[in-house]
Design goal:
With 345 residues, the protein is an alpha/beta fold. It is built from 13 helices and twelve strands. GO terms for molecular function: ADP-heptose-lipopolysaccharide heptosyltransferase activity.
Length: 345
């Protein structure tokens, strides 16, 4: 009996988008139960894919961001050709990623039109309807082009083992036996998406006043360290608040989120990881649209003031006031979070 042909999924470059593409894998697994599904992803995104049970193997892209590197793509495509892929799903909309499965001789190459990719993509989907939420956008690639949007699209799903959570707590000095709240005060997209550090600090103080045994972990990349330092300073440098921005790998951050009693986050990759891990989530939206990329946890709230000027989708507030985030008061967030903590016990 011959082995079922493999399926290749080429990942988006952003962590949040990769997580929101996970339901596509669920649909591919249901349609092709025996076919191994491999994911080709940038190194920064691979830890997220490794926590998805549908993935057989994660391959790291060796390419520099933004560079065509045609010779390198041709060499890598030769390696992919040997793996015997029957189909490739190209999630980035760029020409350079569509080149890879074409050069690899993969017969079925599925993706959106993107950068005039005719021929490179031979099962062409079109996003010519009003912008869809990201999960249905990616999941639609499992069906026929221009098919009606499915009403039963699964939600993103990831998993963390108890061993991974315990190891991450031990490395970061967190007590695995005490309640853990995770804050994600950063946002790669730009400062406009960040809830003010003093607001995060006030929320942390409310949490610790309610439960002195709780601990708060501030997660993010090295770029978020200064923002998390500001949260810590505004909170009075409480011993139960830990600034771990830049101190964990993405895999460790995922493990801590999987262990958390709840997560409060700006619209960022860590928000979507928390949602896929089915943690109680309070998501904070200002310049972005909560309907475009909402959390999907059993206990989830997407908070947005929905001001007249939002969503502007700008990296910096074009009006200079950032009211969409600043006027979202800590007390409002606490009133949303507190019942979640009670329900999650």
């Amino acid at each position: 009996m011959t082995e079922p042909a493999r399926i290749l999924v080429i990942s988006p470059n952003w962590i949040g988008d990769a997580v929101m593409a996970q339901p596509l894998l669920q649909l591919l697994r249901a349609a092709h139960p025996g076919a191994p599904i491999d994911v080709l992803a940038p190194p920064a995104v691979t830890p997220a894919w490794r926590q998805m049970t549908e993935v057989a193997e994660v391959l790291e892209t060796p390419f520099r961001h933004g560079a065509l590197q045609l010779k390198e793509r041709w060499k890598y495509a030769r390696l992919l050709r040997q793996r015997g892929y029957a189909a490739a799903y190209v999630l980035p909309n760029t020409l350079k990623y569509a080149l890879i499965p074409w050069l690899a001789g993969i017969a079925r190459r599925v993706g959106y039109k993107g950068e005039s990719r005719y021929g490179l993509i031979n099962v062409m989907h079109y996003d010519d309807v009003p912008p869809r939420p990201m999960v249905p956008f990616y999941a639609a690639l499992a069906g026929a082009p221009r098919a009606p949007l499915r009403a039963d699209v699964p939600r993103p799903r990831m998993a963390v083992t108890p061993q991974q959570a315990a190891a991450a707590c031990a490395k970061t000095g967190l007590d695995a036996q005490r309640p853990l709240l995770v804050f994600a005060p950063g946002a790669e997209f730009g400062a406009a998406k960040r809830w003010p550090p003093e607001h995060f600090a006030a929320l942390a103080q409310a949490i610790l006043a309610r439960d002195a045994s709780a601990q708060v972990a501030l997660l993010g990349s090295p770029k978020d360290r200064a923002t998390c330092d500001a949260v810590l300073a505004a909170a009075g440098a409480a011993a139960s608040i830990h600034n771990l921005a830049g101190q964990t790998s993405l895999a460790e951050a995922i493990a801590l989120i999987g262990h958390a009693a709840a997560v409060v986050s700006n619209d960022s990759g860590l928000l979507h990881i928390a949602s896929a891990l089915n943690r109680p989530v309070v998501a904070l939206y200002g310049p972005t649209d909560p309907d475009h990329a909402p959390p999907f946890s059993d206990l989830a709230a997407a908070l947005s003031l929905r001001l007249e000027c939002s969503p502007c989708r700008q990296r910096e507030c074009p009006l200079g006031h950032q009211d969409c985030m600043r006027k979202l008061a800590p007390q409002q967030v606490w009133q949303t979070l507190e019942p979640m903590l009670a329900a999650a016990r």
